[in-house]
Amino acid sequence: MPPLPVNREYTLLKPAAQRLGLHPFDIPMLRNSVPYGGRPPCMQCRWCVGFACEVNAKCGTQNTSIPAALATGNCELRTGCMAREVMTDARGRATGVAYYDADDRLREQTADIVIVSSAAVESARLLLNSKSKMHPAGLGNRYGWVGRNFQGHSYSGAYGLFDFETYDDIGPGASIAVCDYNHGTPGLIGGAMLANEFIRLPYQFVGTAPPGVPQWGRGHKDYMRQWYRRSMAVQGPTQEIPIAESRVDVDAKVKDFWGLPVARLSGGKHPKTMETAAAMTDKAEAWLKAAGAIRTWKKLPGKGTSGGQHQAGTCRMGDDPRVSVVDKYCRVHDQDNLYVIDGSVHVTNGGFNPVLTIMAIAYYAAERIVKLRKGRGV
Question: Where in the chain is the domain with CATH 3.50.50.60?
Fold first, then answer.
């Protein structure tokens, strides 16, 4: 599909990037720009981020791969369920999943192959809660790596105010990006893609005010009225360096509704990640100034774990079982029929949104599983 139509921010940021010697490009947005797959194109509304799509143009497994799987007649979808543990036999081999159904009844589903695909926090939690005599520390955790190297993205960038209108009420908003600082930048480890931000409702704009602007009262309202339509944000997902001390484990005392130990997040970011993030704020600020910003200020990430989005690393991929959880096909080491297929297998996310990588690895691993099943009958 072609890129989505450009917005006003695009027309301002593209020539500015070119003047800086950068190489701007249209962002692949995972939204239909033309009718495709029985779904209409994006209507470019202001409600895009954080809300369901009114016309079903925004892509997700709920309107792409899951309907396709159900249509084959070989897939059954059970919603409202909560996995308790991956079951194993006396040899420690996975035999299925114990789960609570939509009526909170404990069920068991046997299986020849078990695939855990619950993202970095919940996949790690499920494996750690799947303890047995053969796996006293949880499945895949013989060497203590399940849950470690927890990471996401350190979003950093800058905001700018302009003496002319930049807002045109057209979503999704994010439309143009540069990758010049993602790899190979002297003095930096990793880097980030930088892009203009998604469209911001007034409620969301409140949280982007510069230092000194009141959070309430007349001064706050004056700022909103004057600058809401004359602002831009540029930021990107700074690559995080994985560290073992940043982790997901399970709480020994706190339990959820079903009596299962909850996930507990701990650790922080590597100092070099913070250095790269700070450098990205400089690059973002320079881009805004080149586009005509009359005032700019920076957005720096916190030092804590990135638990909000783009979660990765807790079931990292590798050849050596002593320092990884799954092999290159996402199969858990020491298990011939247990897989983890989601962002948790990423050694790092790099400096890009990870969804396309997650999708590519999923198809790659699934193809391998199909070939093995057809060849060996397991």
Answer: 78-150+309-376
